[in-house]
Amino acid sequence: MKKFILTAVGIGLALTTPAFSQLAAEKIGVDTLIGVPPKTEDFIQEAATGDMFEIQSSKLAMERTDNATKAFAQQMITDHQKTSEKLKGLVTGGKIKAALPTAMTSSRRGTLDQLKGLQGEAFTKQYHSDQMSAHEGAVDLFKRYGEEGDNDELKAWAATMLPALEHHLQMAQSFNK
């Protein structure tokens, strides 16, 4: 009984983490919690919409924030445009049987809409927080798929992208100290 209660509490705590909120396309975060790799379709959905969010939120940051944050935002735009193009090439190349999403998930859209309503210090603080959460989720997603994904080409790509995402996360964390 104690083991069941501890497991239930652990699941409850894990479901409130940023990684959970970013990976809604998966099995309600349980895949993240237990370390199950995402299905190829879910991985592509999350990776592509993550790039969309990174690019659009960072374009806002280029207009609304301080120089240090603008430098970070420019790197996010550049890096995530490259990963978007690479992912598109992998999918359209025919070796991966999945469709690329054409729009962000409603969760990411809601986060972006909230950010659009902010200015000044409030914007900068929220942008930094959003970047940390988004990259925590991305690192988790790419790590799980890179280790155990079901498409070898996409799995290899996910593994090669992981160091850059970990670097992005470290940069985002430095703003939130």
UniProtKB/TrEMBL annotation:
<keyword id="KW-0732">Signal</keyword>
<feature type="signal peptide">
    <location>
        <begin position="1"/>
        <end position="21"/>
    </location>
</feature>
<feature type="domain" description="DUF4142">
    <location>
        <begin position="39"/>
        <end position="174"/>
    </location>
</feature>
<dbReference type="InterPro" id="IPR025419">
    <property type="entry name" value="DUF4142"/>
</dbReference>
<protein>
    <submittedName>
        <fullName>DUF305 domain-containing protein</fullName>
    </submittedName>
</protein>
<dbReference type="InterPro" id="IPR012347">
    <property type="entry name" value="Ferritin-like"/>
</dbReference>
<dbReference type="Pfam" id="PF13628">
    <property type="entry name" value="DUF4142"/>
</dbReference>
